[in-house]
Amino acid sequence: MFYILGPCAAESREQVLETAEQICSQLSAISIPQSAFIFRAGVWKPRTSPHTFQGAGEAALAWLQEVKERFGMPVATEAATPEHVEAAMKAGVDYLWIGARTSANPIAVEAIASQIKNSKSKNNKYPLRGVLIKNPVNADAALWLGNIERLERTGVPVTAVHRGCNHQPCWAMAHAVRQARPDIPMLLDPSHMSGDAKQVPALIEKGAELGLDGAMVEVHYQPSEALSDAGQQISPEGLTAALKDHFVERPLTLKDRSAERLELNWLRAEIDELDDRLWDTIAQRMDVSRRIGVWKKAHGVAPLQPNRYQQIVEKLKIKNDALKMNGTALGEEFMARMWELIHEESLKRQE
User: Fold this and answer.
1) Rounded average pLDDT over 301-320
2) Whole domain around residue 98: which residue ranges?
3) Is the pLDDT reported for residue 281 higher than 70?
4) Which residues does residue 168 pair with via DSSP β-bridges, in sequence order?
5) Are residues 36 and 160 in the same domain?
6) What is the 3-state secondary structure (H, E, C) of 145-201?
7) What average pLDDT does the chain have?
8) Taking a C-beta distance cutoff of 8 angstroms, is the pair 155, 129 a contact?
9) Which of 252, 270, 305 is the last residue of a domain?
10) Cα(30)–Cα(32) distance, rounded to whole angstroms?
11) CA separation for the pair 155, 114 (Å, rounded)
12) Model pTM score
């Protein structure tokens, strides 16, 4: 198990060094070896809005070098362009990661991989120890696997990082990649998966239940003051509490990590996510039904419209016929009962 820990972005020398110092101090207090950790900080930040903090840029590479020298921790940063790769490798960065936005573009990943190969041949003083590839922003297992292959051609060890999609776990995608490439490590990124620091400890535990190889966690010594992603960064104290709870006081047994148990855990994770989406969708439908009820009252229209009801029944039959083509059709009785329950509740919302 290994962990990549540190702030979302390198904001200042003080912030980087203070966070690294607190992480080292907290982890040593619970006897977790420092060799299991890598310090991370984004130097260049691909932010949605140009008005938000874009990272400190190349100057921040010197702060990461200082972390290596003072605390003996390997360091990692994100690379989104070949220029980022060259600058980071010259500065002695040990690990590079490719973010979800870049991972969605195979041409960009190919360009980064080519630069890694070129920089390797020119720079033997600071050899790159590994490259990490996050899943694309969309749930595309094939693209993620293709990017892994592109990076493997560099000869540098590759690690997959599962960060979910738009704050959804997307367990099915990660499961498919894990099954296709059990030979490479996979880490969980609970910070981006949830977007909520309060959920990070539970997701760290979920990653362990799925047999993942560790986690990439955003840790800031003053999370509320962070210049980017403040809501999803945890404090060094919060990190220590999570690791102590899940891996020191309640470590998983060998039985928990057997291949049979891990497969069941993956399938249960997939079904839990689908259940969450199902209930969220039903709740959203009921809200739309309520708004339709407001419109009907304003226009003197009765809640029950037989023609509309029949149209939906016919659409459900067509949908189930389509599902039969790939072997996922629902029982007709089940589908009818489910629709009646949904329709009945919808009418209540319109009264």
Assistant:
1) 91
2) 2-252
3) yes
4) 165
5) yes
6) HHHHHHHHCCCCCEEEEECCECCECCHHHHHHHHHHCCCCCEEECHHHHHCCHHHHH
7) 92
8) no
9) 252
10) 6
11) 11
12) 0.90
